[in-house]
Specification:
The protein is of the alpha/beta class and 358 residues long. The chain is built from 10 helices and 13 strands. Strands 3-2-1-4-5-6-11 form a 7-stranded parallel β-sheet, with helices on both faces. Helix 3 (84-105) links the parallel strand 4 and strand 5 (108-112). The chain starts with 5 loop residues before the first strand and ends in a 19-residue tail after the last helix. 50% of the residues are buried.
Length: 358
Amino acid sequence: MLSHPTVLLTGASGVVGSALLPRLADCHTIALTHRTPVAGADEQLAGDLTAPRLGLDAAAYRRLATRVDAIVHCAAITGFSSGAEATHALNEAGTRQMVQLATDADAVLYHVSTAFVDRTDLTRAQLGQDHGDATARPEDYLDSKRAGEDVVRSSGVPAVIVRPSVVIGDAVTGAISAFQGMHGVIHGLLRGLLPLVPVPADSPIDFVPQDVVAATIAALIREGRRDGDVWVTAGTSALRTDRALQVIGDTADELGLTAVKPRMVGPEMVDRLIRPVFIANLHPRARRRFDDMLAMTALFAHGHVFPTSLGSIAGIPQAPTTNELEAALRASVAYMAHAKGMATRLPEPVLVGAQVPA
């Protein structure tokens, strides 16, 4: 890779993109924006990921292609309730446009996917289980991300597929640009809205702080990596469900919150007993919230340990230890509680191990 490459970044205002930008100080960054302005990029370029030539006129597109050395494609619909059409329009069709630009620019593509493409067999739809009133459809998201990966692999462009697991806030501060994924569960626990969690106690809950993901991508660019799949996961260090819930509960106590400790039950018991007897008669909004939780937690209920590339590729961070993951989870819980105006005091600081290098 050149000493001062020009990097085009999509999704720069998102969780991974906003954490990555400060780590590209040795690059010239162009943030491709759609509606949200981005602070910290060297340039901003308004465009449309789903349009031919990114919505640029022919001359502007040619100028861009002559300048770009690397593309980091973070932009994606990450929610589970946007519908199959909208999700595929950005996550698959948008990836096609990035592949085309990589081809025209002779650039390396760093495509941010998800580790959960490895768990498409665990969606409730795939398992033949009732969706109930859920609006969450993890299968739409996972199908679109697998399709995006297929687009990259079949293109022939030099490309690295980055597969993070659940991304939480900064390992030290817990700060994050938008609450998503696991934060919804944390919020429900802090509010006492989740009396039970349909995940066995020993199921691994794999999450990584956003700075670990950002440091990995920055290192891949810096090292000039041009191919392969890179798993940014906790791997064997992932917390068990019971331990993750304990950490959240302990942090809630330190913050002066009264969080109800949820009961952990297997999804089979939920479908056989709890849902038909206790959930069926709830208010539709509460029933939908419960069914959405079932849809999301199905990906963890019988999940295996993810592989991890952390520590095995030159330049990228080591995998966080279990203690470091617990400290990062505490930070994310505290950050969210304060951001939502729920906390009455600060938790005791915990210093664990070395921090992710800048």
